[in-house]
TrEMBL record:
Gene3D superfamilies: 3.40.190.290, Winged helix-like DNA-binding domain superfamily/Winged helix DNA-binding domain
Family per record: Belongs to the LysR transcriptional regulatory family.
Name the record gives this protein: DNA-binding transcriptional LysR family regulator
CDD domains per the UniProt record, alphabetical: PBP2_LTTR_substrate
Keywords associated with the record: DNA-binding, Transcription, Transcription regulation
InterPro entries linked to this entry: HTH-type_LysR_regulators, LysR_HTH_N, LysR_subst-bd, WH-like_DNA-bd_sf, WH_DNA-bd_sf
Species the sequence originates in: Anaerospora hongkongensis
Gene Ontology molecular function, alphabetical: DNA binding; DNA-binding transcription factor activity
Residue intervals of the HTH lysR-type domain: 1-58
Pfam families, sorted: HTH_1 (PF00126), LysR_substrate (PF03466)
GO cellular component labels: cytosol
Length: 300
C-alpha cells in the first residue's frame, strides 16, 4: 500500500466523485481509478459500490475511510511539526548549568536567547560541572554551560568567559585586610564548600593537597546563597568566582597570591546528533561570547 493510494481514496470517498477528486488533486482521472483498483486488489475488498452511477462506499469502504482520515491527519500533523522544528518554531533543549554559573551568568544569556527564539524552550537542570559533564557524555543532556575541563576527548566546547576564584571571608574575619593570601596560610581555617559533584570543589581540594593539608570542611552545600550567608556570618571561609562576590556588601573577596582561574563555556558531546534548536543555541552563544569578549577588551 502506498501513501498516495490513501490520498486518492480519501479524496474520492470525501467528494463522492472521481472526476472532481482528480481536479482537486491535479492529476488525470485514470491515475486515480487505477490506484484505487490496485488498493482494492491489495486489500482483497471492494471499497466502492460501482453498481450505481453515483459513487458510494461499501461498508468496508466506510470503515476504511475513517481509518484513512486518521492516518492522513496524523501524517499532516507530523509534517507540520517537523516543519516547525526545521524553521525553529518549536523545540526543546535539555540544558545544564551549575548553580553558581546559573545564578550569575545564565540569566542574561537566557533572556537574550529567548528574545531571539521565543518559541524554543530550555529545560534547565541545575547540576555541578562534574555531574553535568557525565550527563552530557551519557547523552542525557543536549548542552551545558560548565567549568570547562582542561582535557576532555569526548566533548566539544566553546569558551565564554574566564573567571578568577576568590577567597571569601566575613568583614569580621582576621584576614579581611589582606590584599592577597598565600594558600598555605589557610590550613587552620574552617572551609565552607560546594558539594562533591562540583568541579569547583575539586579544584580547591587539589590546591589544598598541593600545599600538604586536608581542609577542615564544616559545611557543604549546592546552594550559593547559603554559602554566602554562612561566610557573611563568619562561620567559615569559602572560594567563589569573582562575578559572584564582586561588590557584595557582607563578604570580603581576596585574590589568592597564586591566582586560580577557570574557564566557563558551552559543552556538548562530540559526534552526537544536534537538533536545529540545539544548533541555534550554539550559534547564538558563539556570537554572544564574541560580543562579551569585545566589551571586555574595549571596556564597553
Amino acid at each position: 500500500m502506498e501513501f498516495r493510494q490513501l490520498e486518492y481514496f480519501y479524496k474520492v470517498s470525501s467528494l463522492r466523485n472521481f472526476t472532481r477528486a482528480a481536479e482537486v488533486l491535479h492529476i488525470a482521472q485514470p491515475s486515480i481509478t487505477n490506484a484505487i483498483h490496485k488498493l482494492e486488489d491489495e486489500l482483497g475488498l471492494q471499497l466502492f459500490d460501482r453498481s450505481q452511477k453515483k459513487v458510494t462506499l461499501t461498508p468496508e469502504g466506510q470503515a476504511f475511510h475513517l481509518r484513512a482520515e486518521k492516518i492522513l491527519y496524523e501524517v499532516q500533523q507530523a509534517l507540520s511539526e517537523m516543519n516547525d522544528f526545521k524553521n525553529l518554531h518549536k523545540g526543546t533543549i535539555k540544558f545544564a548549568a551549575p548553580p553558581m554559573i546559573g545564578a550569575y551568568l545564565f540569566p542574561n544569556i537566557f533572556t537574550h536567547f529567548k528574545n531571539a527564539y521565543p518559541t524554543l524552550d530550555l529545560a534547565v537542570f541545575e547540576a555541578g560541572s562534574l555531574a553535568a559533564r557525565t550527563m552530557l557524555e551519557k547523552e542525557e543532556l543536549d548542552l551545558g554551560i560548565i567549568i570547562l575541563p582542561e582535557n576532555n576527548q569526548s566533548l566539544n566546547t566553546i569558551p565564554i568567559t574566564r573567571e578568577q576564584i576568590m577567597l571569601c571571608v566575613s568583614p569580621d574575619h582576621p584576614l579581611r585586610g589582606n590584599t592577597s593570601i598565600d594558600f598555605h596560610s589557610l590550613k587552620s581555617e574552617s572551609f565552607i564548600m560546594l558539594k562533591e559533584e562540583f568541579l569547583h570543589r575539586q579544584l580547591i581540594l587539589e590546591e589544598c593537597s598541593r600545599h600538604d593539608f586536608t581542609p577542615h570542611i564544616v559545611f557543604s552545600s549546592n546552594q550559593i546563597e547559603t554559602i554566602k550567608a554562612l561566610v557573611a556570618s563568619n562561620v567559615g571561609i569559602s572560594f567563589l568566582m569573582n562575578m559572584v562576590v564582586r561588590n557584595h556588601p557582607n563578604i570580603v573577596s581576596i585574590p589568592l597570591a597564586k591566582p586560580i582561574f577557570i574557564t566557563i563555556g558551552l559543552a556538548w558531546k562530540k559526534d552526537r546528533y544536534l537538533s536545529k534548536a540545539s544548533q541555534a543555541f550554539i550559534d547564538f552563544l558563539t556570537s554572544y561570547s564574541r560580543r562579551l569578549h569585545y566589551r571586555d577588551d574595549f571596556g564597553q
